[in-house]
Amino acid sequence: MCTDSSALLAKQDVARLDIEVVPIAILLDGERTDDDLDPDEFYTRVCAGAPVATSQPNPTEFAAVYAAAAARGEQSVVSIHLDERASGTAASAELAAREAPLPVKVVAAETVSFGVGVCARAAAEALAAGASPLAAATLASRLGSTVRNVFVAPGAPRGRVSQPADWTVLAFAEGETRPLATCEGAAEAVELMVEHILAASQPIRAAVGYAAAASEPAADSFAAALANSTSVRELERYRVGPAVGAHTGPFSFGAFWWPE
């Protein structure tokens, strides 16, 4: 089982489910780090003006992971990554899969960030329960098409995420980031995002995440509002790491949700 660090999986899930995580390279103030930098240190440096960029893994990096899996005696690999319309990461994985010494099923999920983590975790759990690689890959693909998201990215650097104003509520859908509404501040944005998530009135699982520590209180308020709804059957939290925060900015926070 393989994914990349933009999936924002918790370390305990990676260890529990034996998931190989290929790092997204981070170029911070001209120096390369493989996304293992402490988030608080990363956002402190970004807020101080350090320029940041990311680079998708190349096929050689995926090839090394697939070869190591074969050497361990694995019979196949399921490799789950973000929407191919937003990044070439899945394409790199596909190139490596063609020359791999074992079958590799690459899934470009129709989601990004922690949404990919949700898909990768579900697939890994299915494999651990005895599902075939094809069944696990199919599960991840179908789940990715149902995962929804909303977020704000005040002060985000120009690039993959752009917004008309700092407190514009955004959503990634169909391969692009789209504005939903512009708010006056964090409190109004939280209220609007909660309303958007609960509009369908169906049982869901949800996850709330934040980037820099300065955004944690707003994320706490967001999570508390969702937890009070009977529609939200399970709520978890995640941290927006450098691989995603490089694009959404240090003050971003938001949520993913999917059918129970």
List strands and helices in order, with pairings.
Layout: E1 2-4, H1 11-17, E2 20-22, E3 25-28, E4 31-33, H2 39-47, E5 52-55, H3 59-71, E6 77-81, H4 89-98, E7 104-108, H5 114-128, H6 133-144, E8 148-152, E9 168-173, E10 176-182, H7 186-198, E11 204-210, H8 216-227, E12 232-239, H9 242-248, E13 253-259
Parallel strand pairs: 1-2, 6-7, 11-12
Antiparallel strand pairs: 3-4, 3-5, 8-13, 9-10, 11-13
Helix pairs in contact: 3-4, 5-6, 7-8
Could you characterize what this model shows?
The strands form five sheets. Strands 8-13-11-12 form a four-stranded mixed beta sheet, with helices on one face. It is globular and about 55 Å long. Helices cover 38% and strands 26% of the residues. It has two domains: 2-144, Rossmann fold, CATH 3.40.50.10170; 148-259, Hypothetical Protein Tm841, Chain: A,domain 3 (2-Layer Sandwich), CATH 3.30.1180.10. It is α/β, with parallel strands linked by helices and 260 residues long. The mean pLDDT is 95.
Key traits:
13 strands; 260 residues; 9 helices; Hypothetical Protein Tm841, Chain: A,domain 3; Rossmann fold; single chain; four-stranded mixed beta sheet; three-stranded antiparallel beta sheet
Structural class, by secondary structure, is alpha/beta
Number of domains: 2
Q: Portion of residues in helices? A: 25-40%
Helix segment tally: 9
Whole-Å distance between the termini?
A: 23 Å
Instruction: Return residue spans where pLDDT drops below 50 for at least 5 consecutive residues.
Output: none
**Strand order of the biggest β-sheet:** 8-13-11-12
Total number of strands: 13
What is the correct CATH architecture of the largest domain? 3-Layer(aba) Sandwich
CATH topology of the largest domain: Rossmann fold
Biggest sheet layout: 4 strands, mixed
Strand content: 25-35%
CATH C-level category of the largest domain:
Alpha Beta
Shape by Cα distribution: globular
Mean pLDDT: 95
Rg over C-alpha atoms, rounded to the nearest angstrom: 18 Å
The run of helices and strands is: EHEEEHEHEHEHHEEEHEHEHE
